[in-house]
Amino acid sequence: MYVDMVTARHYEERLQEEYLEGKQPAFDISAGPIPGELHLAAGHEAAAAGVCQHLRDDDAVTATHRPHHVAIAKGVDLERMTAEIFGRETGLGKGKGGHMHLFDPDVNFACSGIIAEGCPPAAGAGLAAKKRNTDSVAVAYLGEGAIDQGAFLESLNFAAVHDLPVVFVIEDNDWAISMPKDRVTDVENGAQRAGGFDMPGVRVDHDDAVAIYDAAKEAIGRARDRNGPTLIEVQVHRRMGHFMGDPESYRPEEDQEAAAERDSIARLEADLQSHGVDEETIEELRDDAHERVEDAIDFAKDQPEPDPSAAHEDMFVNPPSGVTDTEPEYDLAGGDD
Ligand SMILES: Cc1ncc(C[n+]2csc(CCOP(=O)(O)OP(=O)(O)O)c2C)c(N)n1
Ligand SMILES: [Mg+2]
């Protein structure tokens, strides 16, 4: 868990630096080595590491618009993921999806820029596992800002009614862009939503990786044993802006300071030390993680950009005529249309 967490933290800090290159002084979102929006997840690492530790490659995970920590913990190929974020041809989506649309079929990982969008596909993956009679499970991540979305509530219902092996994980960072949680919902915590669907709902109040690990162990075990879905809410902290370039003028300074103080990585380090892991070992793990991140960034920067002529490739199964010269791979309709 520690390795996943320090990898993810260093990754976000390095992307923050890379992203700003060329975008200033006037903020130009398309300039620099990382084009487009960028949502960083520093402060969310424990929610990824504690849950994904229990998962196998055949288990499915759908993450949010803030996906890197979860992708890292799920074992997504870091070099191809970074190439995707840098918009390069060898990226997971040939450089055309960007940081919010990372797909790695080798480890069954996907994410989306549409909030709560990962919930229905996770329920679908759970249904597929059930129909195929395997013991794989699916995990859907969402933010606390998405707990009133229809896609989430319908997926909870579907998973409950069909007893699907799905775990829903709400990352509660108190903010949905500039909107504080208590202005959009009256429930004290998102895990209460579970009651309406007669499924277990658990809240972990601190971004304590070990507590999250324990809660996830039970929920994922329940799903694997075919005992139905669980909803977990985890308190995390947004250490950075909603997206890169967010001036956070809406956010009280104390809130920012509190997020910086409650550091799940420092907490886990202290835990490791109290269990006899020495500082030298911790440093080694951290250095190796940092090196892996640097290698992935170097790799990405070396990769070619996609040829503009590829812009329309891979968009349609059966491209309308004139959209692309490439022959359709499939003929699902079995006819001309
Ligand atoms: C369906 C939908 N509505 C609105 C948006 C715009 N949007 C992007 S992120 C966001 C807030 C998300 O907050 P939360 O779910 O708490 O996740 P966080 O950003 O805090 O991780 C919104 C409203 C969107 N992407 N999708
Ligand atoms: Mg939020």
Automatic annotation (TrEMBL):
<dbReference type="InterPro" id="IPR050642">
    <property type="entry name" value="PDH_E1_Alpha_Subunit"/>
</dbReference>
<dbReference type="InterPro" id="IPR029061">
    <property type="entry name" value="THDP-binding"/>
</dbReference>
<keyword id="KW-0670">Pyruvate</keyword>
<keyword id="KW-0786">Thiamine pyrophosphate</keyword>
<feature type="compositionally biased region" description="Acidic residues">
    <location>
        <begin position="326"/>
        <end position="337"/>
    </location>
</feature>
<dbReference type="InterPro" id="IPR001017">
    <property type="entry name" value="DH_E1"/>
</dbReference>
<keyword id="KW-0560">Oxidoreductase</keyword>
<feature type="region of interest" description="Disordered">
    <location>
        <begin position="286"/>
        <end position="337"/>
    </location>
</feature>
<dbReference type="GO" id="GO:0004739">
    <property type="term" value="F:pyruvate dehydrogenase (acetyl-transferring) activity"/>
</dbReference>
<protein>
    <submittedName>
        <fullName>Pyruvate dehydrogenase E1 component subunit alpha</fullName>
    </submittedName>
</protein>
<feature type="domain" description="Dehydrogenase E1 component">
    <location>
        <begin position="31"/>
        <end position="308"/>
    </location>
</feature>
<feature type="compositionally biased region" description="Basic and acidic residues">
    <location>
        <begin position="286"/>
        <end position="315"/>
    </location>
</feature>
<dbReference type="GO" id="GO:0006086">
    <property type="term" value="P:pyruvate decarboxylation to acetyl-CoA"/>
</dbReference>
<dbReference type="Pfam" id="PF00676">
    <property type="entry name" value="E1_dh"/>
</dbReference>
